[in-house]
Amino acid sequence: MMDEKTEELRDIFLSVSDEGSVTELQSEDRGTLLGESGGDLAAVVEDIREKFGFELSLSQDERLRLIEEFYDGADDDQLAATLELDTETVFRARMELHLLREDEPRLDAETVEQIRERNSAPEELAAELGVSEQAIQRCRAILDARERSRRVSHRFRTAYEEQLTDTDLTDHLAADATEDGLDGATEGAETNTDF
Q1: What are the two backbone dihedrals, phi and then psi, of residue 55, each rounded to the nearest 5 degrees?
Q2: Which residue of 21, 50, 56, 195 is 20 to 30 Å from 125, comparing CA positions?
Q3: Residue 120 belongs to what domain range?
């Protein structure tokens, strides 16, 4: 049943359109409060796989766990220990999933700009800039991942955050549901009643 506001909007729509009727379209909101976010998070991972592909042969479960642990604040060493992977694999998986940390790359702005602008081999740049080849390779991987994420308006990271926030909210609501709010109202009441 339409409320008064909806009815007014319907009348306005009908007055300005050529349509003779309005069909209500109802769709499920993103996220869920009915259970784990795993299914929805898996759909996001599939979307990123279709858009960019994955080079690493990790399982879907490993990728989902990596995302969840990343948003729980785990660093690469902790992720590696949890997933039983080496830290380089964890780093590469994070780049594939657009999971970037705010402080990456850990080089000064001028060095990052030099790496961004120049196509020199890592060993040449390393000698010129006084940083390791590994730091240059990591910086390029981070810049590439940042650019891929920017090209899709960071939609995958936003989707991860929405799904994981919904999960946190579900847990919070489930915990709150056990408290009925009647503790104060029944305080001091006689409860030893014989029937």
Answers
A1: -90, -35
A2: 56
A3: 34-168
